[in-house]
Write a structure and sequence with these properties.
5-stranded antiparallel β-sheet; 3 helices; 330 residues; globular; single chain; 18 strands; mainly beta
């Protein structure tokens, strides 16, 4: 299992997977990884187009992104909730912690150049059940559960929910997105960016117990990818800023106030066979002799120019309600 941090490369209204060539895309995203990220990303080897990466391993020029999280204050303004460095990633500029998991050495086939996929459903607004939909979840770090375990995402019904927390979280919010681990062995993508991959026949499985039999239509087991985002809600816990009606004030940039619509996009960009070697040689966390580590001060310097306003007070009232989530970040 690899577990490593990727600092922020850009926060931008671009989505080369779902909205290729469209600028701006339908909503804001927070992106990490290689600096080849743009409105359009060709199917060729992304690692050859990128000159730097914000990820811990120099060989990884992949791009990983999710929706942003905003806090809706009582006065009607919106502020972006920043990401904070996750456990063991001190010095990172926010970003995402990425996991690649294999049940055993030589048990998975690494992705090929051009591979990409999507996890989650941007339009989902109701629960499918935490056990059934083990694809995304949240953990609210309270005084009773400060820190929690990093090795059991989406598996603990006491601490994990598939909806955004409805109470202040003094230690922030951990958001996990878990991708499928079965591939059809042929297609690097599909029209909905999902059909070429699949979960085991028993359904989604947690990264900590990677296993299960792949369906015959998707017989090739690939490394299971998981994102872990630490949202720093500590500046937004003042009860006087929360809605007077007691509702939770957090909203994803895709207009989702429930949290069920959290999703993750992935574009593969590892150099040559570096990921396959790492999976086959039993690398653990950031301990991997076949890969080259980058210190935070180096990877934090890798950036993509930003064209949109993403911070400060953002006023919903200046825009027509039905256009708010499309334009409020400008």
């Amino acid at each position: 299992m690899l577990r490593f941090g990727c600092s922020q490369v850009v926060i931008e209204r671009l989505d080369p997977l779902v909205n290729p060539g469209q600028n701006p895309s339908s909503h804001m995203h927070q992106i990490v990884g290689g600096n080849a990220f743009s409105a359009s990303m060709p199917l060729e080897d992304i690692s050859a187009l990128s000159t730097c990466t914000t990820c811990h391993f120099q060989e990884d020029h992949s791009n990983y992104w999710t929706a942003n999280l905003y806090f809706r204050a009582r006065n009607g303004t919106y502020k972006r909730v920043p990401q904070m460095a996750n456990e063991f990633n001190t010095g990172d500029n926010g970003g995402i912690t990425v996991y690649y998991t294999s049940p055993a050495p030589n048990a998975t086939t690494a992705f090929k150049p051009g591979f990409r996929m999507l996890a989650g459903d941007v339009n989902l607004r109701k629960s499918e059940g935490l056990g059934r939909n083990m694809q995304q979840c949240y953990r609210c770090y309270t005084k009773e559960n400060f820190g929690g375990s990093m090795y059991s995402p989406c598996m603990d019904p006491v601490y994990d929910t598939d909806h955004l927390p409805k109470i202040p979280c003094p230690g922030g919010i951990r958001s996990n997105i878990i991708f499928p681990l079965c591939w059809d062995g042929v297609n690097l993508d599909s029209p909905n960016h999902k059909d070429h991959v699949a979960h085991p026949i028993t359904g989604p499985t947690s990264f900590s117990v990677v296993g299960g039999e792949c369906p015959k239509s998707h017989p090739v087991k690939i490394p299971q990818v998981m994102y872990e985002v630490m949202w720093d809600t500590r500046p937004f816990n003042n009860p006087e800023d929360w809605p007077e009606d007691g509702s939770q004030p957090l909203v994803l940039s895709n207009g989702d106030t429930t949290g069920y619509g959290q999703h993750g996009d992935y574009v593969f960009g590892w150099e040559k066979d570096s990921l396959q070697v790492a999976m086959d040689t039993g690398c653990y966390l950031r301990n991997c002799s076949s890969l080259t580590e980058l210190p935070p001060k180096v990877k934090n310097q890798c950036q993509v120019p930003v064209s949109a306003t993403v911070d400060g007070d953002l006023d919903e009232c200046k825009l027509p309600p039905h256009l708010f989530f499309f334009f409020f970040v400008f």
